[in-house]
Amino acid sequence: KAGVTQTPRYLIKTRGQQVTLSCSPISGHRSVSWYQQTPGQGLQFLFEYFSETQRNKGNFPGRFSGRQFSNSRSEMNVSTLELGDSALYLCASSLAGPGAEAFFGQGTRLTVV
Amino acid sequence: GDSVTQMEGPVTLSEEAFLTINCTYTATGYPSLFWYVQYPGEGLQLLLKATKADDKGSNKGFEATYRKETTSFHLEKGSVQVSDSAVYFCALSIGGSNYKLTFGKGTLLTVNP
Question: Which of A30, A70, A71 is nearest to A48 (CA)?
Fold first, then answer.
Protein backbone atom coordinates (compact mmCIF):
# COMPACT_ATOMS: atom_id res chain seq x y z
CA LYS A 1 0.00 0.00 0.00
CA ALA A 2 1.08 3.60 -0.53
CA GLY A 3 3.25 5.18 2.14
CA VAL A 4 3.02 8.59 3.74
CA THR A 5 3.19 11.31 1.11
CA GLN A 6 4.39 14.81 1.86
CA THR A 7 4.21 17.72 -0.56
CA PRO A 8 6.08 19.66 -1.62
CA ARG A 9 9.50 18.06 -1.08
CA TYR A 10 11.36 21.38 -1.17
CA LEU A 11 10.34 24.96 -0.48
CA ILE A 12 12.16 28.26 -0.40
CA LYS A 13 10.39 31.14 1.31
CA THR A 14 11.25 34.65 2.39
CA ARG A 15 11.20 35.87 5.98
CA GLY A 16 7.77 37.12 6.96
CA GLN A 17 5.89 34.93 4.49
CA GLN A 18 3.69 32.03 5.45
CA VAL A 19 3.81 28.45 4.22
CA THR A 20 1.49 25.42 4.13
CA LEU A 21 2.79 21.86 4.04
CA SER A 22 0.67 18.84 3.22
CA CYS A 23 0.68 15.24 4.42
CA SER A 24 -1.36 12.29 3.16
CA PRO A 25 -1.25 9.40 5.64
CA ILE A 26 -1.34 5.69 4.93
CA SER A 27 -4.88 4.56 4.16
CA GLY A 28 -6.68 3.66 7.38
CA HIS A 29 -4.34 5.62 9.65
CA ARG A 30 -6.24 8.27 11.59
CA SER A 31 -3.36 9.64 13.66
CA VAL A 32 -1.03 12.13 11.99
CA SER A 33 1.92 13.74 13.76
CA TRP A 34 4.32 16.45 12.67
CA TYR A 35 7.98 16.84 13.65
CA GLN A 36 10.61 19.47 12.98
CA GLN A 37 14.16 18.25 12.37
CA THR A 38 17.11 20.63 12.62
CA PRO A 39 20.84 19.95 13.10
CA GLY A 40 20.88 21.81 16.41
CA GLN A 41 17.67 20.63 18.08
CA GLY A 42 17.22 17.25 16.44
CA LEU A 43 13.69 15.89 16.07
CA GLN A 44 11.05 17.87 17.94
CA PHE A 45 7.36 17.06 18.17
CA LEU A 46 5.04 19.74 16.81
CA PHE A 47 1.53 18.31 17.15
CA GLU A 48 -0.65 15.27 16.62
CA TYR A 49 -4.11 15.01 15.12
CA PHE A 50 -6.65 12.23 15.40
CA SER A 51 -10.06 12.32 13.74
CA GLU A 52 -9.71 16.02 12.93
CA THR A 53 -8.88 16.93 16.56
CA GLN A 54 -5.54 18.11 17.87
CA ARG A 55 -4.77 15.79 20.78
CA ASN A 56 -1.23 16.78 21.62
CA LYS A 57 0.95 19.81 21.04
CA GLY A 58 4.67 20.39 21.42
CA ASN A 59 6.42 23.46 22.69
CA PHE A 60 6.30 25.67 19.60
CA PRO A 61 4.98 29.23 19.19
CA GLY A 62 1.49 29.92 17.93
CA ARG A 63 2.88 30.69 14.46
CA PHE A 64 2.87 26.93 13.96
CA SER A 65 -0.57 25.49 13.41
CA GLY A 66 -2.17 22.53 11.77
CA ARG A 67 -5.38 20.85 10.87
CA GLN A 68 -6.69 17.49 9.77
CA PHE A 69 -9.44 16.83 7.28
CA SER A 70 -12.15 14.18 7.33
CA ASN A 71 -10.08 11.96 5.01
CA SER A 72 -7.20 12.12 7.58
CA ARG A 73 -5.02 14.27 5.33
CA SER A 74 -3.24 16.93 7.33
CA GLU A 75 -1.72 20.33 6.72
CA MET A 76 0.58 22.41 8.81
CA ASN A 77 0.98 26.13 8.48
CA VAL A 78 3.77 28.40 9.61
CA SER A 79 3.06 32.13 9.56
CA THR A 80 5.49 35.04 9.69
CA LEU A 81 8.45 32.83 8.80
CA GLU A 82 11.76 33.31 10.55
CA LEU A 83 15.22 32.18 9.46
CA GLY A 84 15.19 29.69 12.34
CA ASP A 85 12.19 27.90 10.84
CA SER A 86 14.45 26.43 8.17
CA ALA A 87 14.23 22.70 8.77
CA LEU A 88 13.08 19.34 7.52
CA TYR A 89 9.43 18.90 8.47
CA LEU A 90 8.41 15.27 8.85
CA CYS A 91 4.93 13.86 8.98
CA ALA A 92 4.13 10.47 10.46
CA SER A 93 0.96 8.43 10.45
CA SER A 94 0.00 5.58 12.70
CA LEU A 95 -2.85 3.50 14.01
CA ALA A 96 -1.99 5.05 17.41
CA GLY A 97 -2.15 3.23 20.71
CA PRO A 98 0.62 1.75 22.85
CA GLY A 99 3.57 0.45 20.85
CA ALA A 100 2.11 1.52 17.52
CA GLU A 101 4.58 2.07 14.75
CA ALA A 102 4.81 5.52 13.22
CA PHE A 103 5.38 5.56 9.45
CA PHE A 104 7.22 8.62 8.25
CA GLY A 105 7.10 10.51 4.99
CA GLN A 106 10.24 11.74 3.23
CA GLY A 107 9.71 15.21 4.60
CA THR A 108 9.48 18.74 3.28
CA ARG A 109 12.73 20.68 3.29
CA LEU A 110 11.87 24.32 4.08
CA THR A 111 14.50 27.00 3.58
CA VAL A 112 13.75 30.52 4.78
CA VAL A 113 15.91 33.26 3.25
CA GLY B 1 9.33 15.16 31.31
CA ASP B 2 10.22 12.27 29.06
CA SER B 3 13.66 12.24 27.47
CA VAL B 4 16.04 10.01 25.53
CA THR B 5 19.81 10.17 25.68
CA GLN B 6 21.91 8.38 23.11
CA MET B 7 25.61 8.36 22.48
CA GLU B 8 26.85 11.22 20.39
CA GLY B 9 28.48 10.39 17.12
CA PRO B 10 29.84 10.21 14.70
CA VAL B 11 30.71 6.54 14.88
CA THR B 12 33.05 5.20 12.21
CA LEU B 13 33.59 1.46 11.81
CA SER B 14 35.12 -0.92 9.34
CA GLU B 15 32.93 -3.44 7.56
CA GLU B 16 32.19 -6.56 9.69
CA ALA B 17 32.94 -4.72 12.95
CA PHE B 18 30.66 -4.96 15.99
CA LEU B 19 28.30 -2.07 16.60
CA THR B 20 26.85 -0.74 19.85
CA ILE B 21 24.92 2.50 20.15
CA ASN B 22 23.91 3.29 23.71
CA CYS B 23 20.47 4.65 24.57
CA THR B 24 18.98 5.45 27.97
CA TYR B 25 15.63 7.00 28.76
CA THR B 26 13.62 8.84 31.39
CA ALA B 27 9.87 8.40 31.28
CA THR B 28 6.91 9.38 33.44
CA GLY B 29 4.96 6.29 32.47
CA TYR B 30 5.68 2.87 31.01
CA PRO B 31 7.18 3.54 27.57
CA SER B 32 7.42 1.61 24.35
CA LEU B 33 10.92 1.87 22.89
CA PHE B 34 12.00 2.19 19.27
CA TRP B 35 15.03 2.48 17.05
CA TYR B 36 14.52 4.41 13.83
CA VAL B 37 17.03 4.77 10.98
CA GLN B 38 17.36 7.66 8.54
CA TYR B 39 19.25 7.24 5.29
CA PRO B 40 20.53 10.36 3.49
CA GLY B 41 17.72 12.42 2.01
CA GLU B 42 15.03 10.16 3.43
CA GLY B 43 12.49 10.15 6.22
CA LEU B 44 12.70 7.81 9.20
CA GLN B 45 12.13 4.07 9.02
CA LEU B 46 11.35 1.89 12.00
CA LEU B 47 14.22 -0.52 12.59
CA LEU B 48 12.92 -2.36 15.65
CA LYS B 49 10.78 -1.91 18.74
CA ALA B 50 10.04 -3.34 22.18
CA THR B 51 6.93 -2.69 24.20
CA LYS B 52 7.68 -4.24 27.59
CA ALA B 53 10.57 -5.02 29.90
CA ASP B 54 12.96 -7.79 28.76
CA ASP B 55 11.50 -7.77 25.24
CA LYS B 56 14.13 -8.03 22.52
CA GLY B 57 13.46 -6.25 19.24
CA SER B 58 15.36 -7.47 16.19
CA ASN B 59 15.49 -6.74 12.48
CA LYS B 60 18.12 -6.97 9.69
CA GLY B 61 20.73 -8.28 12.14
CA PHE B 62 20.17 -5.43 14.62
CA GLU B 63 19.01 -6.16 18.16
CA ALA B 64 18.03 -4.18 21.26
CA THR B 65 16.71 -5.36 24.63
CA TYR B 66 14.34 -3.33 26.82
CA ARG B 67 16.07 -3.11 30.22
CA LYS B 68 13.75 -1.52 32.76
CA GLU B 69 16.22 -1.82 35.64
CA THR B 70 18.83 0.26 33.79
CA THR B 71 16.32 2.26 31.69
CA SER B 72 18.27 1.35 28.59
CA PHE B 73 17.67 0.12 25.03
CA HIS B 74 21.11 -0.25 23.45
CA LEU B 75 21.34 -1.07 19.73
CA GLU B 76 23.75 -3.82 18.63
CA LYS B 77 24.79 -5.53 15.44
CA GLY B 78 27.40 -8.24 15.19
CA SER B 79 28.78 -7.40 11.75
CA VAL B 80 28.03 -4.07 10.09
CA GLN B 81 27.94 -3.46 6.36
CA VAL B 82 28.61 -0.35 4.28
CA SER B 83 24.87 -0.20 3.58
CA ASP B 84 24.23 0.31 7.32
CA SER B 85 25.70 3.82 7.10
CA ALA B 86 22.92 6.12 8.29
CA VAL B 87 21.69 8.13 11.28
CA TYR B 88 20.12 6.05 14.06
CA PHE B 89 17.54 7.46 16.47
CA CYS B 90 16.38 5.99 19.74
CA ALA B 91 12.82 6.99 20.69
CA LEU B 92 10.07 6.33 23.19
CA SER B 93 6.33 6.74 23.35
CA ILE B 94 4.01 6.54 26.32
CA GLY B 95 0.83 4.52 25.91
CA GLY B 96 -2.48 6.29 25.97
CA SER B 97 -4.78 8.22 23.73
CA ASN B 98 -2.17 10.72 22.58
CA TYR B 99 0.55 9.63 20.22
CA LYS B 100 3.92 11.33 20.51
CA LEU B 101 7.46 10.10 19.95
CA THR B 102 10.32 11.55 21.97
CA PHE B 103 13.63 11.15 20.15
CA GLY B 104 17.27 11.14 21.06
CA LYS B 105 19.64 13.42 19.16
CA GLY B 106 20.66 10.72 16.69
CA THR B 107 23.95 8.93 16.03
CA LEU B 108 25.63 9.10 12.64
CA LEU B 109 27.18 5.76 11.69
CA THR B 110 29.67 5.51 8.84
CA VAL B 111 30.90 2.08 7.78
CA ASN B 112 34.00 1.94 5.61
CA PRO B 113 34.79 -0.98 3.26
Answer: A30
